[in-house]
Amino acid sequence: xxxxxxxxxxxxxxxxxxxxxxxxxxxxxxxxxxxxxxxxxxxxxxxxxxxxxxxxxxxxxxxxxxxxxxxxxxxxxxxxxxxxxxxxxxxxxxxxxxxxxxxxxxxxxxxxxxxxxxxxxxxxxxxxxxxxxxxxxxxxxxxxxxxxxxxxxxxxxxxxxxxxxxxxxxxxxxxxxxxxxxxxxxxxxxxxxxxxxxxxxxxxxxxxxxxxxxxxxxxxxxxxxxxxxxxxxxxxxxxxxxxxxxxxxxxxxxxxxxxxxxxxxxxxxxxxxxxxxxxxxxxxxxxxxxxxxxxxxxxxxxxxxxxxxxxxxxxxxxxxxxxxxxxxxxxxxxxxxxxxxxxxxxxxxxxxxxxxxxxxxxxxxxxxxxxxxxxxxxxxxxxxxxxxxxxxxxxxxxxx
Length: 400
What we know:
Blueprint lengths: L1 H25 L4 H15 L5 H13 L4 H41 L8 H25 L3 H16 L3 H19 L17 H24 L3 H14 L8 H10 L6 H13 L7 H33 L3 H4 L3 H30 L3 H15 L5 H15 L5
Helix pairs in contact: 1-4, 2-4, 3-4, 4-11, 4-12, 5-11, 5-14, 5-15, 5-16, 6-7, 6-14, 7-14, 8-9, 8-12, 9-10, 9-12, 11-16, 15-16
């Protein structure tokens, strides 16, 4: 009987690994597309969970900071195979793009990337993709004048005061504004409850660890001037403060590593462009940065550090989700944060993306073409990236 149980467990874990890895190799198109792939595979084909449970899990992960699609994948793994199932699901979905970006980072170190035309093309790809993200997020997250004003406040402050403290401060202040402005607003309430296989004790430990690392790592970083600790702190903090989708990690990482002098803008934006060409979550951009800074060991550490908050938050909030989603005050604070995220993203769109990419009329024209291919012609991201690389090389032959 015991052997039969062990065999069933092993079979479940292997099944989780194989399916999540398949999704990791094939999930192009960003977080919204990832959720569609998950729904098709886990709900419609495998019937691991029903529509209601899947909708609840997606709602929870969109409520939390972090990469929503990765968190949904972790949650499904937990529902299927407990905590170990969540870890296996995460590894399967994430490692394909992590390995691809670490290889790219290793290759790019031996190339002259500063003035390469294809690198400039990737930078213009970033212009088109982030512009598309801004339009979609602004439509959904700032539908009224109050939230548009919050976004404007976040834009002005983070543009004029460029530091990690400005972003943290804007997010906290916007949460307070949202709390007071929207705490009485009637929200759509979900009456049915969903049960997750995580005890409140385990959840509480996860939440405690999340906040302990968030506040203690900067202190440890100051006490022990060790590069690996500083890198772990930067990636962990970036992963903890991302609201509104993976694209928002761009300005946080840019503030940490470009303005902090760790990485050139050219290398940073080349990696960002390459990340658009691989499947899986945008957070795997951290693997590229870590590899450029400290080899494959740095890439693995960066990946672990930036995804750790997402894992701790999913485990920490699953048992409390039924209470959170019915609390209008918490939802009001989140509305303020989401509006601020739009402003932060516009700030990052101007600098470093626009200022280092659109240098002449031909750059702007090429960015408009890529944007149209992405938004109006609905072409996949990998086609946009290939077009950007080829177009960037051609642009290098056009005289200023």
